[in-house]
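Notes to self after the call with IL:
- keep both proteins in one doc
- input above output, always
- annotate only the second one for now

Protein 1:
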Amino acid sequence: MCFVTTPLQHLWRVGSQKGHGRVGRRSSSWRIYRDHKKEVIYLGVRISNKGHCEGKIKRRIGMAGNALSGLTIIWKDHHISKETKKRLVQALVFPIATYDSESWTINVAYRRRFKAFEMTCYRKMLQIP
């Protein structure tokens, strides 16, 4: 049984209970009950009982990588300055990668993954192999 507290003081409980999954309201907190589930999808967000968000981070970095690949024509254009290209990366690619990041649990490995992705973005922008 694991308790994860969100910033809004909601209490999420994932554990074994009799019966089927149900959502109940008790005082000012919501409780979600599921039978032996490792992950619960609530309001379109996958919540793990251990608080991991590796799948979300990989998905977001992949989506941002696709957006970065779509801008290849801009990266090859020598008439556009490096400063403008940098602003395009910061305006079009990084928001895709960091969308919904306020709900993630970030550890050292995820932080390194984001730094590596940032370096990949700048290397593609400058056409460094």
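Protein 2 (the one to annotate):
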Amino acid sequence: MTYHPSAEEIDLAAVMATLGDSTRLAILGHLDRQDGRPLMCSDFTALASKSNLTYHLGRMRESGIIRLEKSGTCKMITIRRDDLDARFPGFLDSVLKAAENMDLPALECEDEDETVEA
């Protein structure tokens, strides 16, 4: 079973440290643009190698930013927006707004003005 901290266990310092990486910020931005629809790990292979993605997604899960749910042989990824908004009101929106102006890695399909399909 994959560990996810409870909403009360989500620590602001851990969340901020986790989001101090451009790849993880890019993952967060891509997830946010899906309006709650889950993405698969394979949707992010343009950002990093599989082993690096495993590391980044693990850090994001352990800090409480994302939730991974098994669906067959895939793991579906969503932002824990409700938990983060309840714990730190306005924080997630502020981070995402600031990240819009950063030069973050893009997914290949975004270069073609398409959205990532889940």
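Annotation: The chain has one domain: 7-99. The first helix runs from residue 12 to 18.
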